[in-house]
Amino acid sequence: METQQLTSTELSQFTGTENWYRHPIVRKMLYTDGIRHMMNKAGAYWLVDEIAYQQFHPRVKTEEFQVWILATNLEESTALLSCEDGHDRVLCSKQIPYTDFPLAEIKIYVSGNVILLPSEY
């Protein structure tokens, strides 16, 4: 799948959501219009899957509010995905050996089983 150009400015235009989408496997997880746009435009379905699957991690599942950060090394096509508790305490992290995600960094929130962009919070 070829990804399209995606910008942080474009993502910041999403405020609130008109629709809620249910994750197909982790059914308790919902995501917003902004997340769906990011998934479709950047081909980042895997990113939402990873966040949803990590909700079963012992240190993550007890946190009502989470900050997920994907820091991408664009030159090497690798990334580090980490989850924080909103107070800069890292709950878990995972090396991503390959990604074509177009942004150097993206933050995604999880609040009350909803995956959303910071501007949608």
What does this molecule look like?
The protein is of the alpha+beta class and 121 residues long. It has one domain (22-120): Nuclear Transport Factor 2, Chain: A (Roll), CATH 3.10.450.150. Helix content is 20%, strand content 31%. β6 (105-111) and β7 form a beta hairpin. α2 (33-42) crosses α3. The protein is globular and about 35 Å long.
How do the helices and strands line up, and which of them pair or pack?
Elements: H1 8-12, E1 21-22, E2 30-31, H2 33-42, H3 45-53, E3 65-73, E4 78-84, E5 90-96, E6 105-111, E7 114-116
Parallel strand pairs: 2-7
Antiparallel strand pairs: 1-2, 3-4, 3-6, 4-5, 6-7
In short:
The chain has three helices and seven strands; from the N terminus they run αββααβββββ.
